[in-house]
Amino acid sequence: MPAVTPGNGAGGQGLQVDVTQARQVAQQLKQLGDSLIPAASAPQESPGPEKSIAAIAAVFTASDHFSKECGSFLQREGATLGRAVQAFEDMDQRNAGNIGAVDPRKN
Length: 107
Known about the structure:
Number of domains: 1
Distance between the termini: 39 Å
Organism: Mycobacteroides salmoniphilum
Protein name: ESX-1 secretion-associated protein
Number of helices: 2
């Protein structure tokens, strides 16, 4: 089941949010981001064909930068999703409390 699906409320409006699943997605995004940020170091120069070593180092540097940017993006988006899920849950709980407070059946 997706984390967010169309609701079945009046007129089919609203959303149903599986908060647990949405949190799992946020955590998975953060973990994927972590895995994309490499811990390896650039290749060391050694005797041999300098142009090949320089080319390999340039490719490594570009790849390393790209991976770090993608990883950072996924970490940020995972954190943003996590905050959105928490805000949704807080709002949902407040709204549920408000419904109970104004329930005409209680009078």
